[in-house]
Amino acid sequence: MARIVTLKILRAVITLLIAVSLVFFFIRLSGDPALALAPPDAPPAVVEEYRTRLGLDQPLLTQYLRYIGGMFQGDFGYSIHTGRSAQSLFFERLPATLLLGLTALAIALGLGVTLGLIAALRHNSIIDRFVMGFSVFAFAMPNFFFGLLVVLSGALFFGVFFGGSGATRSFGQLLAPAATLGLAAMGSFARFTRSSLLETLNKPFMTALAVRGVPPRRRLLRHAIPNAAIPVVTMLGLSLGGIVAGAVVTEQVFSWPGIGRLLIRSVETRDIAVLQFIVLMVALTMTVTNLLVDLVYVILDPRMRGGQNG
Amino acid sequence: MSDTPILRLSDVSISLPTGSDRTHAVRNLSLRIAPGQCLCLVGESGSGKSVTGQAVLGVLPPALRQTSGSIAFRGAPLDTRQRGREIGTIFQEPTASLDPIMRIGDQLEEVLMVHGVRGRRARRARALELLDAVKLPEPERIHRAYPHEVSGGQAQRVVIAMALAFDPMLLIADEPTTALDVTTQAEILRLLRELQTARGSGLLFITHDLGVVADIADHVVVMQHGNAVEEGPVERVLSAPAHPYTRKLVAALPRRRAAQPPPSLRPDPVLEAEGVSLTYRGTTGLFRRTEIAAVQDVSLTLRRGETHGIVGESGSGKSSLVRCLLHLEQRKSGRIRIMGQDTTDWGTGLPRSIRQRLQIVLQDPYTALNPRQRIGDAVAEAARIHGASADQARDRARTLLERVGLSAQSYTRFPHEFSGGQRQRICIARALATEPEILIADEAVSALDVSIQAQILALFRELQERLGFAMLFVTHDLRVASAICDDITVLRAGQVVEQGPMDQIFDAPRDPYTRALLDAVPDKAGRAGNFPAASGEG
User: pTM higher than 0.90, yes or no?
Assistant: First the structure.
């Protein structure tokens, strides 16, 4: 067990290093930041000055090594516009995004799994069809559009603006963007839970348990649901990516002062250091989540403990 | 003997949903099982034998309904609470009938708990006792293990231990040994028989294998298309079957082929393998690798027009060896000659001119055909790839389909319109489309019902006689091997245990493992096999 964990952590670190390097080089491939920063009709000498100030005149490899070296000392560079360190800008915005993302995930997981379980247990009934119809709607609905509808209907029917606060000033102001963000993941959780549970219920061992006299309630709670949970956990890791990506759009729609909006602004203004740090943190989140999912997987499924899958 | 049978079915009918190929899964079935009696329900797939077992247990699939008749357990309708306590059940797939993520001990103790055994210590003690009773080595270890950590045979013993936990009056076993190796099958049958006689319970044993029937049954009910066509004591039914269907089943059992006079001059070899070894690499760590020897130093010779059997239990390396011979794996060592041409250095990239000579028929005819390709096109495609013109290929496909016993009109039909046996015929036609010199049949009859199996074996023999190809026949079933092979290679753990002419292997096996395999073949006494005329001396 300890060996599997060590291996997985080692792999996670390698993954992060690769992510950092890719970000570094791709940002520099996508156009000269100095040109974007300097005024449109600035003479070449001015552009050159910007370049020197940002260290962009150095060879790429030197820049890269300097960046990696700084990273290990906790220096992730400074924002070109505000002059503040990239991480301070990031961590200032983090609570707002965490609040939004975790609420969205909680809504998606709680509601999605519950709906999926109900649909599976009422298989082929009207409830089942309704839940499945709703889940298709949920993940087919683009969140930028759904978000606009929510904002619009809030303003028209309740006379409030949903969003913009970044804190729990009112329940609705958090719930509206969080529900928008979690909608798609909820739909896939519902469908995934349903099909996973249905598949488990049809496994031969479920019949075997019945004829061994194990009562239905116990069959469901002790056998069917734990078995059905295994693929849903995988789904949880995957859906986090969707939520991170969705946050960028949702924050924009609801004017939520989180990292998503910081990211968009940094891209627009070529604020390299901030951009790099955000992407690094997103990669870290994804890697850590997947690491956790893998570990939960090993706890849930004894078949994964052989080590051959490590 | 008490007058009340343990189980009595009177006039039971179970309907199929509308639109099925027949109206009833089971029609007007009556049977009774007395204490201590073993009743075998025998039939091919779709005969309704498993459905009968499900009806007794009250676990019919939702689409099926019992429309008439009564099922009485000790004179009264079955209360589902009796399941697990008074009725024990054993299934075909032992590993699949256990919860994969719960320890075996916990599952066994759960059964004890739901039937009222109080106290954790008492349950644990009883669980270990039960594991010991089914002769599992190291009950403590099995108790701690998860289902995937034990072998199929061990898992089946665990399932038997669960079924016997409360000394049930009735045991229902649905194909309990079909998924097991032949030596394991023999042990499980012996164990079942022993425990059942000792406890005097009734046993409803569902199987398709008449050999197994001969070994375990007291009384037999033969089912066909949902009807009981014949019933009686096992000796009578097997030695003097009255119904034509029973006779057909008995006649279809693979029978050893007549002893061949040793030819003074054996034909040329078409495939020679010498010292073939294959290792698979497994990854155990980030950088550590382990090597698993799948095939070790195997040599064999396949001669023109002859059949060479490769026999072994699961995991013996049969399929790995076939993949080596087909040049689908990078071998670790060994020389291979195909049609006199040394192909050792070709690695996995065998040229088409040699591939054409070498064709394979696989085990599962349901997955071996492209469901969206017309079967005639499937056969013609093989000929096209190897150089025939479109017209030639179509003509050859028609001829071949007829030759394997399908009408020329079937050319434009799709695989789902055919039965399993017919699909295997299509696969054979497809393999023959390139006019191969060597045909590899990898468990090609293992998934088929016994009567279909007999037809396909006969087809192989007939085609071989007419076309003269050599055949490498891979099987786990010694009975099938004895019906068709000239030579046999017995594999175990990737190594050749014994090799030689079929008669010699069967009559005078030298290796203890070969002897154990032969001993484990069901119905060794030949009760089912000596009807109508056993060829050779059985």
Answer: no
